[in-house]
Amino acid sequence: MKKLTKVIISCAITGSIHTPTMSDALPVNADQIAEQALGAAEAGAAILHLHARNEADGAPSSAPEDYMRFLPRIKQGCDAVVNITTGGGLGMSLDQRLLAANTLKPELASMNMGSLNFGLFQAAEKISSFKQPWEKGYLEMTKDFILSNTFSQIERGITELSGHGTRFEFECYDVGHLYNLAWAVERKLVQPPFLVQCIFGVLGGIGPDAENLMHMKRVADSLFGDDYILSILGAGRHQTSLVTLGAILGGCVRVGLEDSIYLGKGVLARSNAEQVAKIKRILTELSLEVATPDDARQMLLLKGADQTAF
């Protein structure tokens, strides 16, 4: 793992996992996404990971015009790095998933590094009534759903976005995904440094245990040596403990309402900024320095905000 002097805080603002019924704080339209993204940047997030939602009902959207409702406002209001999803919403085709990043050419984009069962159906069992008609079916269909990221799909996504100068947040939900990234490295599809986002706690991926984090780090160390930057994502109630452990081990952190709608046990977060402020406070107490957006650009060799298409 690359030795870091500063910790990058990424904030995943809305995602496509949580639905409007789950939290009133979840940003589900452009105004809310822009406001919360700017708040997270002000609180200390160097990278903003962004999905779009349909203005009418808050459902996940892949339409570039939905992204353009908030991206220019974010760019004008802060200097944070914009990271656009290529995971999109569950059930989207690969064309849909790549559309926004291919059109808008961000500095950074997520790239899922393997197929997996992606189970959200248990959440539907806990909710008796929904705000929007699409929510229940969206969650329940994941009992028979595979998030597809074949080698061909990975190669296509990396090749197309690399042509725009976009670099990647490599999302690894299990140990095998690290080996898939090593395959891409061996084929010279990607160049270091690699931002490796290890994800714990999604049903279908690796479990949210400290031992699993240590194992993922050991495997990544063996595969990538000093050529990668580790970042940790803990889903749901595991967010704070796992990202803190990752930071102690020398990695970076990701928080945000995409990953967890809670601030602490039984306490819903009121905003993304609240989660960012919490992890920044913890990092500071651990005597770790938080990276600025320009630090992140230098650490990840990004092309600069002036080279994007928004």
TrEMBL record:
<dbReference type="InterPro" id="IPR013785">
    <property type="entry name" value="Aldolase_TIM"/>
</dbReference>
<protein>
    <submittedName>
        <fullName>3-keto-5-aminohexanoate cleavage protein</fullName>
    </submittedName>
</protein>
<keyword id="KW-0808">Transferase</keyword>
<dbReference type="InterPro" id="IPR008567">
    <property type="entry name" value="BKACE"/>
</dbReference>
<dbReference type="GO" id="GO:0046872">
    <property type="term" value="F:metal ion binding"/>
</dbReference>
<keyword id="KW-0862">Zinc</keyword>
<dbReference type="GO" id="GO:0043720">
    <property type="term" value="F:3-keto-5-aminohexanoate cleavage activity"/>
</dbReference>
<dbReference type="Pfam" id="PF05853">
    <property type="entry name" value="BKACE"/>
</dbReference>
<keyword id="KW-0479">Metal-binding</keyword>
